[in-house]
């Protein structure tokens, strides 16, 4: 199960490996030397894992990472070892170390993403234990939100920037329909009719 203690231990271990790697005077291996050392370490790790000795397996990979601080491979294998053991916090830390050396590595990205989801799922499961669930999805969600709001505060759940954006969005109002103006009457209609007694042929004279 994910705990902050495990995360702290993982961070301390990662920092110690990085410091040791920087402080070491031994130069990094060549590509051929590293490939051979990685293959040998992988065999040792597989053998140790079969015996259930995860800590020793991680130590083997940590030693290889110290001797080759610029290489991502030991960290990726370490992340997989932690992930398979359901130590998701350590898996995330190891995956981050690999991504610092190669930000495009898909294996490290996948481990980090899935491990993060597992941690989030475990956290929600723990929170569900503090909420009186009624079986309805909406009521459960409201209950969980209330617990998180009481614990973390409103600003964490709804960042102030998002709230301002919602308020700043103008409400669309329908445009008023312009009143239609009656067409002007024709000049013939506006002209007053001739007197009933007038000669209708007088204009032709």
TrEMBL record:
The lineage of its organism: Bacteria, Pseudomonadati, Pseudomonadota, Betaproteobacteria, Rhodocyclales. Residues 158-205 are annotated as: Disordered. InterPro entries: TPR-like_helical_dom_sf. The keyword Isomerase does not apply. The keyword Lipoprotein applies. Residues 1-23 form the signal peptide. Residues 170-198 have a biased composition (Low complexity). Keywords: Lipoprotein, Signal. This is Putative lipoprotein.
